[in-house]
């Protein structure tokens, strides 16, 4: 499961962000605080996704080294 998440992190992030937007739009009774908290969590998740993608890019450019990239340990 972790391999799947690591491999498809950008797609999963996009699904989560789209789902949050749809729920915020179509469920009128949600408290503003909840929507803002979930939006902040999505932004934090975006940072993690960016680090994973950067690690994949670094690994590809270095020829597939087995050393973990910075921030993925």
UniProtKB/TrEMBL annotation:
Bias (Polar residues) ranges: 63-73
UniProt keyword annotations, A-Z: Membrane, Transmembrane, Transmembrane helix
Membrane-spanning ranges: 12-28
Region listing for Disordered, in residue ranges: 54-73
Name recorded for this polypeptide: Uncharacterized protein
Organism: Streptomyces chrestomyceticus JCM 4735
Organism taxonomic ancestry: Bacteria, Bacillati, Actinomycetota, Actinomycetes, Kitasatosporales
């Amino acid at each position: 499961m972790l391999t799947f998440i690591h491999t498809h992190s950008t797609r999963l992030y996009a699904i989560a962000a789209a789902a949050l937007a749809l729920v915020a739009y179509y469920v009128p009774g949600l408290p503003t605080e909840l929507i803002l908290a979930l939006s902040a969590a999505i932004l934090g998740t975006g940072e993690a996704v960016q680090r994973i993608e950067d690690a994949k890019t670094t690994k590809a450019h270095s020829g597939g080294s087995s050393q973990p990239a910075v921030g993925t340990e």
